[in-house]
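ok trying again, last paste got cut off:
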Amino acid sequence: KTHNKKSLSEILYEHMRIAVVNMSLQLSDDFTFIHRRAKRATHAGGLIDASCAGFCYLNEGDIAIEESITEKIGRELCLRNDEIDIKGITGVHGRYTPDFSGTIDLIASTSLNSRQLERRIAHKMFEEYFFIPNEKIDSYVVEHFAYKQDMSSEGAAALLMPLEKKLFLKTLDCLRESGRKISFGHIEEGVF
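nice, full thing came through this time. structure:
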């Protein structure tokens, strides 16, 4: 479990003041669940986001990544811990230096399909939600983040990070060509 060990570099734990988890949830029928944030939300109101997101909790001074995302999965998507396979951290992106408040991106999967999930989710938690075919995530992000500009950068990052490397780089090129970009770093063996 990620909250029982420091899976990111020490400097992140020393300097991060606010941490957020943002997850891309892939369903058994090869769709990814995403949603639109409420217009009244204090951050990125009305914008399309990834599957599930929110503040990270601290557990005795450690960032409780897995505890935080499983709580949100349970509350928003009405899924039990045994119905989710958290595959891991796909990236970290931050803003507002020097305190490196930022987002920890995760990927997870479930054995539920889109129809089963739709029957279970807490509909009142979502302004709007969508089931996007996994093979169209790249073009969906380009359309909504770059051109329609109705997607948050955090949601775009969380959805792009799980892509195969060649497709990920091609998609970043498309974003740059449109005048929009997201800067990504690398995590190697938990070091950013």
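cool. The longest strand covers residues 84-95. Residues 92 and 104 are 5 Å apart (CA to CA).
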